[in-house]
From TrEMBL:
Official protein name in the record: GTP-binding protein LepA
Organism of origin: Nocardioides luteus
InterPro entries the record matches: Ferritin-like_SF, RNR-like
């Protein structure tokens, strides 16, 4: 019988075989209306380029937080995930420069103090198991956000008539994200089932106090994220004055569906972890406040 680990190993091997990093010379950077495209999507490309390129820092964070990770995790992040994401970043960054924008400003090597403390504690095996669960939850939310964002961006780019970008930049990138999401989801489900009650309690608590939308490390980036939400048309449910969820797509429910099911299923009545919807609402508000400054 196949164990969960066997399934994960097979999934990672398949991702590696079926999705080699996208070669830069496969991309057609032709843009018919650079100014119009830049005005509508330039900042979205910049945000995504930064987040993709920052996987180099994410790998440092993972190895700090998980001093002794399972072999399959190492294989995934070192041999599949990081090489794919870096290419996404390089391609998107090149595209924004073709539009006349400066390259993304990235933080590739600064690991925060909180993570270093977690990493020290994680030398205790039961605590590393808590960190692993937090890592999988972050991975799930991040990759699910990427799947949604690239789908919406692809639709938007097709609308602008920039078919070279849609077909040779966004489409190939968006094909690689669901496999990442699947890895974290399989891992999260399997790992959650092995945790003791105190570990689950700690995961819920730490997740509640540490959740942030993908790529948000400070107030400026929170507003940037809000701008991206607006450009992709997923901000409406979070605007002030509208009843929560009364209009538009509920991004939080989509991003945190499995997290809700695993961590909070016993809290019936809550469709979405409140810290996720709060974070998205704060992003939209930060973007609006910055726009009127
Ligand atoms: Fe990516
Ligand atoms: Fe990804």
């Amino acid at each position: 019988m196949l164990t969960e680990t066997d399934r994960l190993v097979a999934h990672v091997a398949r991702l590696g075989e079926e999705h080699p990093p996208i070669p830069l010379d496969s991309v057609d950077f032709t843009v018919n209306d650079p100014a119009g495209f830049e005005a509508r999507f330039g900042h979205v490309l910049d945000y995504m380029a930064r987040v993709e390129l920052e996987v180099d820092r994410n790998v440092l964070e993972i190895s700090t937080m998980l001093p002794n990770p399972p072999e399959v995790d190492k294989q995934f992040y070192a041999e599949v995930w990081q090489p794919q994401e870096i290419q996404h970043g390089l391609i998107l960054d090149r595209l924004q420069q073709v539009l006349g924008r400066p390259p993304a400003t990235t933080d590739l090597d600064h690991v925060g103090l909180k993570l270093k403390v977690l990493g020290l504690l994680a030398h205790l095996e039961p605590f590393q198991d808590v960190c692993r669960m937090l890592y999988y939850l972050t991975g799930m939310a991040t990759e699910r956000s990427a799947v949604i964002a690239y789908n919406l961006l692809h639709d938007g780019v097709i609308e602008t008539g920039e078919h070279a970008v849609a077909d040779t930049v966004i489409a190939p990138i968006k094909r690689q994200e669901p496999g990442h999401y699947a890895f974290y989801q399989l891992s999260a489900r399997a790992h959650w089932a092995t945790l003791a009650r105190w570990q689950k309690w700690l995961v819920r608590h730490m997740r509640r106090i540490s959740f942030a939308p993908v790529g948000v490390n400070n107030v400026e980036q929170l507003a940037d994220f809000g701008d991206v939400m607006e450009s992709l048309g997923v901000d409406r449910a979070y605007r002030l004055g509208l009843r929560f969820g009364s209009e538009g797509r509920d991004l939080a429910a989509d991003v945190a569906r499995v997290e809700q099911e695993l961590l909070w299923a016993r809290d019936r009545g809550l469709p979405v972890p409140d810290y996720v919807s709060r974070a998205f609402r704060e992003a939209v508000e930060a973007a609006r406040a910055r726009a009127v400054r």
